[in-house]
Write a structure and sequence with these properties.
The protein is mainly α. The protein has one domain (3-210). It contains nine helices and no strands. α1 (3-42) packs across α3 (57-81), α2 packs antiparallel against α3 (57-81) and α5 (100-116) runs antiparallel to α6. The longest helix is centred in the C-terminal third of the chain and has 43 residues, at 169-211. It is globular and about 80 Å long.
């Protein structure tokens, strides 16, 4: 074997090992993000009660905006990292939770509810987003804890063999493709809604400019 072949083999092994380590790290860290997402979302009543006891208006505004930014940013980061469940090669060959793509889909549905409705002012929208988040977290926690991380438990061998993606690749790939179609539909709906909203906003602005005197427009 030539030195260049040895160098290429070492480089390829490092790249493959690094990618596998990164995927494993993301899958192991996602439960922390899911837990923090649920805690911040379900902690809204506590934050509201704290705001009512805050005497300084500026302090209340800073507290509320910080809470909203952390809560929604965590949801976006969790969904972004969950994209590993939509890569067919990883789903078929890595030990991932079988229902991980469905969990990401329900997380995106909760984000869509937040983007389309005033969740912090509408109790029905808040309940709907809570239900979607709980279902998504359950679909992720269950297979991860009782299948992927329970390989040493003989009593869970059958459950683990079914709910681990690389041991049941056909079902895992079907779930992934169905979930990916759902993600595409939701993304297209959000894009269309944003497009229509931008057009309406621009139309109102143009109508307002037409009604103003030319001197005011200039």
């Amino acid at each position: 074997m030539k030195p260049i072949d040895v160098s290429n083999a070492i480089m390829q092994a490092l790249v493959q090992g690094g990618s596998q380590w990164m995927v494993s790290t993301i899958v192991a860290f996602l439960p922390v993000l899911w837990t923090m997402t649920l805690m911040l979302h379900l902690g809204r009543p506590y934050v509201v009660r704290t705001l009512r006891r805050c005497g300084l208006r500026l302090g209340a505004d800073v507290w509320w905006m910080s809470y909203l930014l952390m809560r929604d940013a965590l949801m976006l980061i969790t969904f972004a990292l969950s994209w590993v469940f939509f890569l067919p090669n990883l789903v078929a060959n890595a030990a991932l939770p079988l229902t991980g793509p469905l969990a990401a889909l329900f997380l995106l549905l909760a984000l869509a509810v937040k983007l389309s409705r005033r969740v912090d002012d509408d109790i029905q929208a808040y309940r709907l987003s809570t239900i979607l988040l709980v279902i998504g977290a359950t679909l992720y926690y269950g297979p991860l804890v009782f299948a992927v991380e329970a390989t040493s438990q003989g009593a869970l061998a059958g459950f683990g063999a079914f709910f681990t993606s690389n041991q049941n690749p056909m079902v895992a790939l079907w779930i992934m493709w169905v979930s990916l179609v759902g993600v595409g539909i939701i993304a297209a709906w959000l894009f269309g809604r944003a497009w229509l909203s931008a057009n309406r906003s621009m139309g109102r602005r143009l109508e307002t400019n037409k009604q103003l005197p030319k001197a005011a427009v200039q």
